[in-house]
Each structure stands twice: as C-alpha cells, then as structure tokens.
Amino acid sequence: MSSLPDVPLSSPSSPPSSSGSPLLGFGLDLLIGIAVLLLLSALGAVAWGLWRAVETAAAGGAAPAAAGMASALGAPGALAQMLIALFSTGGAALLLYFLRRRASAAERADSRQALRRASTWGWIALVAAGVFLGSSFIGWAAKQMGVEPVPTNLLLMQQAWAQYPVFLVAFAVLLAPAYEELLFRRVLFGRLWSAGRPLLGIVLSSLAFALVHEIPGISPNSFPAMLQLWLIYGGMGAAFAWVYRKTGTLWAAVIAHAVNNAVALAAMVLFGTQ
C-alpha cells in the first residue's frame, strides 16, 4: 500500500484548484471514471474468455461452436471476478488520479506528516468504530421492519473465501480500500473540497459510492432492501470523506476503510453475517 499516491487537499478557504465549474469538473470525472471502468471490465472479460478458450484447447477439448461458446466457457469464477474488478476499478482510479487530480510533492509531504500525528490515528479509530456501529444499527432497525437485504457481492466473497482466502484478504482489506478511496475520496470528493464545496462533495461522492456498490437493475434486492444498503454505503462514504478532510491525509480514509472491510470479512467467516 505504500505506493498509493496519497495527498491532502488545500483547505476549503483556498482558491479552486482549477478553472471552470467544480460541478462540471465533478461530472466529467464521474463520466470518465464510468467509461474507463466499463471499458476495462469488458477488456478483462475478453481476456478471461481467451484464457478459458486456451485452457479448453490445451485440455484437448474441441473448439465450441459460436452458439455454444458461452455455455462451454462458463462464467468467471471468484478469482477472475476479483481480478477484473481490481483491473477495472483500480485502473479507472489511477487514470483519473494521474490525469485529473495528481498530487504535488508538497501535498504528499504534508500527508505523510499528518499520518505521523497521534490525533490522526485517534480519528481513524473513531470513524472505524462509528461506521461499524452505524451500519449495525441500520441493519438491526431494518430487520425489525422485515427488511433483510443480501449484498450483491456476498456470494462472491463466500466463494472467494472457500477457494482463495489469502487473495480475498489482500483484495478486500488492502487493495479495494486503496483504489476506492483514491477514486471516490481523492478524485471525486476532492474535486469539490478544493473548490470550497466540501459538504456537496461529501453528498455527491457518497451517493456515487453507494450506487456503485449496489447498482439498480442489477441488484437482486427489493427497493426497500436497496435503500438500506445505499444508506449504509453512503454513510460509509461520508465518514471516510469526513476523516480525510479532518486529518488532511487520504491514508486516514484508506485505513478506516480497510478496518471496516476486515471486520465485515471476519463477521462473514465467523458468524455468516452479511
């Protein structure tokens, strides 16, 4: 994780870091991110299909007809899905960072200095605990109303734990928090923070964070169940943006996010909870 290009942003009272409307810049960042994510996801799926075709040929199987290609190759397994997610979302985050929100040397130095402050670690612990307690309360309250959603990625996590536990831990606890914070907090939230609109940045970036994790039309959950998950993910996004701004280092958000994912993964393994 030491290679993450982390930076604090200028204070909200500083002049906007770029000309033009910050909302327009945010929208452009979001559209670029979506386009790159979809493109890299498609490329990843094609690469996986080619690999499966090579495996089938090496095993001595006949090349399937075009009509039966999908059934012959099957669906990507847990490892392939995680690799595609890492390639697509991580690639989109890095591209947007280097093209649109790259840090200066001074910003990186300030970020490292902020990480050495004891107060930063106190805020990290507070936010990590708050996210866990808040998510637990929302889940408990929804259950009292008969709403028990199943996160879209739960089955993938369960399959990955059964087959690739070491990679799942690396993916969920180290890699995913790093590239998600780089994309949603550094790039999206940071765009509006540096323009003096931090509250709007928290709202919009957290909304995007929630929708990416539970996509309408793809999620198998009912609308009330999706609302609960959006509230949880949105609250997480807001908390991570807040600790980023409070401490002045993106590492605070990354670490709080990693702790949250580690706790959720441990709960899934030990108790079978969502």
Question: Segments where pLDDT lies below 50 for 5+ residues?
Answer: 9-19
Shape: globular
Calculate the terminal CA-CA distance, rounded to whole Å: 26 Å
How large, in whole angstroms, is the Cα Rg? 20 Å
Instruction: Please bin the fraction of helical residues.
Output: over 70%
User: Structural class from helices and strands?
Assistant: mainly alpha
**Nearest-integer average pLDDT:** 87
Helices, by number, come to 10
Order of helices and strands: HHHHHHHHHH
Biggest pleated-sheet summary: none
Tally the structural domains: 1
- Binned strand content: under 5%
β-strand number: 0
Describe the 3D structure:
The protein is mostly helical and 274 residues long. The chain has one domain. 75% of the residues lie in helices and 0% in strands. Helix 5 (118-144) packs across helix 10 and helix 9 runs antiparallel to helix 10 (250-271).
Any key phrases for this structure?
single chain; about 270 residues; mainly alpha; 10 helices; about 0% strand; globular; transmembrane helix
Task: Describe the secondary structure blueprint for this structure.
Elements (H helix, E strand, L loop, with lengths): L21 H37 L10 H5 L4 H23 L4 H11 L2 H27 L9 H10 L1 H29 L4 H16 L9 H25 L2 H22 L3
Helix pairs in contact: 1-3, 1-7, 3-7, 5-9, 5-10, 6-7, 7-8, 7-9, 7-10, 8-9, 9-10
